[in-house]
Write a structure and sequence with these properties.
By secondary structure, this protein is mainly α. The protein has one domain. Helix content is about 65%, strand content about 0%. About 45% of the residues are buried.
Amino acid sequence: MTCTEESLDSLRLAGDELADATVATLFERGEVGKFNTLMRYVSTTGAPLPDGLPDVAREYLAATSAPPDWVDWEEMEKARLFFMDNNVHISTALSFASMPACYVVPHVARLLSATHGLKYPSKRMAETGQFTVYLMQPGAFEAGSRFIPAAQKVRLLHASIRHHLAREGRWDTGALGTPICQEDMIGGQMFFSLLVLDSLHRLGVHMSAEGAESYYYAWRVVGAMLGIDQDAVPANTLEARRFLDLYMVRHMGPSAEGAHLTRQLIDLYEEVVPGTLFDPVVSSLIRYLVGDTCADWLEVPRTSWDSVVKAMPHVLGVLESIEDSSPLGAWALDRLGHLTTHLELSSLTRGRVMHYAIPEQLRKDYDVSDALPRNSRWSPPPSTVS
């Protein structure tokens, strides 16, 4: 699909037909509670479905039990290697760029506030981090993995939010389009793929063009499994730049909800950082990655660390040079990144497995082998906005 104002307008009216129909039937038959109870026992691919599961849910799970048939598994393996090589950097980009970027879109921030999805931001961050780790594990799509059940549940979660907001009259569909519409889901896919790559580049992380495209490709596969119409999704990072630029120009701006959610996120990160000396780094890193205009809209405070954070690419450049030239250094830094990522995730999940359930109402508590070559480094596609 050619990315135009008109094509994006049409995407604002579309949800996810399969998941929406499944959720509507579960609510109509009063079977949501039974579904949630039984689905807590379905957490790995290939596990037998429990007796008593509603027929409509069983049909949905069968229809969504495998990745799309067009998946290139060689590309997916390249993406996994890219993730393993850059896991701590990707976690940083997701936390300090992708999440705040969601809040720069006022209607998305309003939706998150309306559903109380970020009343407890650690839950949202833990779910996002856990989902990404599941995706990039060896055998993510094979029996015994946790990724596919997580994707199936997240898709129903999105459908349930659409169901509640429409039923309760808490969403102006005429002005804002369908909640969690196709345009916003593709926008979210861009935040977790292209924006992550942009952030890695801004941080000075060495990455190959091949690895970057493979990482983007993996999120196309994820998007398909989350009910996103892949005919409307950009095929590569060059096309993705056009979509993301147009999407942000159409929708980004300041909002009270966006500033509030950002403040909650900053408070969460400051709690994770030991002590208080380095607390200002949180705000400075967000400001550095999203830019001053967006940071001002989100009311991210300016700190004395703003200038210091700008030196991060130089520091990371030295570390990356060591990794490039020394197999032992590469191993040590990869292990450090792996440990850091899992410690961060453990602190958010408190060691528990996060469960994705269909909310019965919008409650206040709703909440490998060698690395890829680093020559021919990836550079972000140029902006399409003058």
